[in-house]
Design goal:
Layout (H helix, E strand, L loop, with lengths): L1 H11 L17 H24 L10 H14 L2 H6 L8 H4 L6 H35 L3 H9 L8 H34 L12 H28 L5 H32 L4 H9 L3 H25 L4 H27 L25 H21 L4 H4 L2
Length: 397
């Protein structure tokens, strides 16, 4: 009898189908994949902006304002995937009206309001205040009243006032850097705290999420800077682009090292869940993890960025290399979010079976909704660039 049971479990361990016990049900869809992806873009874009303001990296100054506007545009959309996913979106306000400080999700509401209203909006307003005052005095019609309201009907742009704005803005940026880490690090903290799921339960999860956020945000701003420069028909500042690419490479190497360390630790530990995780990586997540995330989304961008840094490549060749590296980076980070959120729900708690996630095309949690949530912040960013030209400070436009 014991031999029969042993053989049975041996064969069951090789089964990859959906078998009993069938408690598996995917509660989190592509919308929950988008949530950490978008918040990561916000944190990474703000950290890139802080390089110029806090760490005095003057080479990235042409992208300072653009990075701030990018962070604001995507931050405005960040809670929408969660709200759409809820059966009753109006209940999201309960987080604020009935605060529960022991809940990690409740903390997001306070961190989000702090980061949006206090850090990001205040810093952008202080940096643009002189421009807003000038526009309030020069524009006509409804735009004049809009800029007057933005200036808070205060038109003092004396050198002393502007110097005070700069000092306060720098202080806000210093506060904003740990706030950006907190905004996205807590997402990794939520996943890493779920001990019942061995795919998520790792103390490295918050750190990996932070560095992957830096990678995705820097790559996004780099791409937007190249696209906007092309649309404006101006020459790209290659010194700025090379500096962004260098910091992107640094962050990428650290992020990949941390993910590799986490994977090696799982192999070395080889607990009771390792067999199921290994089958998951070689089976259902083979394409999204090994090919898309690691090969195309990590190794290829790191190789391209390394070649640029080690070899003197001509600018006309560096530009498409940077663009390709940026696009592949965003695809790889999105695949990482997919593998964490969706992959962590594909195996049974008994480690004796797997299920399949079917992404619907149309619906509340379908592909079209996800695509709209990606396009919407781009539209908001275009409006923000129209209202607050990010290159006026450097070019005098």
């Amino acid at each position: 009898m014991d031999e029969i049971i042993r053989v049975l479990f041996e064969y069951l361990g090789k089964v990859q189908g959906f078998i009993y016990p069938n408690e598996i049900e995917l509660h989190w869809s592509i919308l929950i994949v988008l949530y950490p992806f978008i918040t990561g873009l916000v944190a990474g874009a703000f950290i890139l902006a802080s390089l110029e303001r806090v760490f005095n990296v003057k080479e990235v100054k042409p992208t300072y304002r653009l990075a701030l506007l990018t962070a604001l545009a995507f931050l405005l959309i960040a809670p929408m995937p969660l709200n759409i996913h809820l059966g009753h979106p109006e209940r999201a306000l309960e987080i604020l009206f009935t605060p529960h400080l022991s809940s990690a999700m409740a903390i997001f509401g306070f961190v989000y309001i702090w980061y949006l209203m206090v850090v990001l909006v205040v810093e952008i307003w202080l940096d643009y205040r002189k421009d807003i005052v000038i526009l309030a005095q020069s524009e006509k019609g409804i735009k004049k009243y809009i800029y007057q309201a933005m200036a808070l009907w205060s038109y003092n742009i004396s050198p002393e006032a502007l110097e005070l704005d700069d000092k306060i803005g720098k202080f806000v940026t210093i506060i904003g850097v740990p706030s950006a880490f907190l905004l996205h690090g807590y997402v990794g903290f939520i996943f890493g705290s779920i001990k019942a799921n061995p795919w998520w339960s790792s103390p490295l999860m918050p750190v990996i999420f932070i560095f992957s956020a830096m990678v995705s945000g820097i790559a996004l701003v780099m791409l937007i800077y190249m696209i906007v420069s092309w649309l404006r028909k101006v020459v790209i500042d290659m010194n700025c682009l090379d500096t962004i690419g260098r910091y992107l490479l640094y962050a990428f190497i650290i992020d990949f090292s941390l993910e590799t360390l986490d994977l090696i630790h799982r192999f070395y530990e080889s607990n009771e869940a390792f067999g199921a995780l290994a089958m998951l990586m070689s089976g259902k997540l083979h394409i999204s993890l090994l090919i898309v995330q690691i090969a195309l989304g990590t190794l290829v961008p790191i190789t391209l960025l390394s070649i640029i840094q080690l070899i003197k490549v001509k600018p006309e060749i560096r530009k498409p290399m940077y663009f390709s590296a940026g696009m592949l980076t965003l695809i790889g980070i999105f695949a990482m979010r997919w593998n964490v959120v969706i992959g962590g729900q594909l195996f049974s708690k008994s480690f004796r079976g797997f299920t399949t996630y079917k992404l619907e095309l149309i619906g509340k949690e379908g592909l079209m909704t996800a695509a709209a949530l990606i396009i919407l912040p781009v539209i908001i960013l275009a409006v923000l660039i129209y209202l607050f030209p990010p290159f006026a400070k450097e070019t005098g436009e």
